[in-house]
Design brief:
82 residues, 2 helices, alpha+beta
Length: 82
């Protein structure tokens, strides 16, 4: 996320900036950049449902709302694998 990875911008705000740049009506839309869909989890059971739908993938990335970018896994961001 180039200059957006300085750690001072909450995740949701970084995603808004990326959508404004690279989203379907963004200023720099291109086929090489795709923004992954984000889904807000409200209950633990929802995570398990997501894991079932992602069976062929490695897992589901879970992030605490409002968390900041870090170059490593933390208690605010981690991957849940099935």
């Amino acid at each position: 996320m180039f200059p957006l990875n300085d750690g001072n911008i909450p995740f949701e705000e970084r995603m808004e900036i990326l959508r404004a740049l690279f989203g379907s009506s963004g200023t720099h839309t291109c086929a090489e950049v795709q923004i992954a869909k984000q889904i807000k989890i409200k209950q633990k059971e929802h995570i398990f449902k997501m894991l079932k739908s992602a069976e062929s993938n490695e897992g589901v990335m879970v992030r605490e709302p409002g968390s900041f970018y870090e170059r490593r896994g933390t208690k605010e961001q981690y991957t849940v694998e099935g």
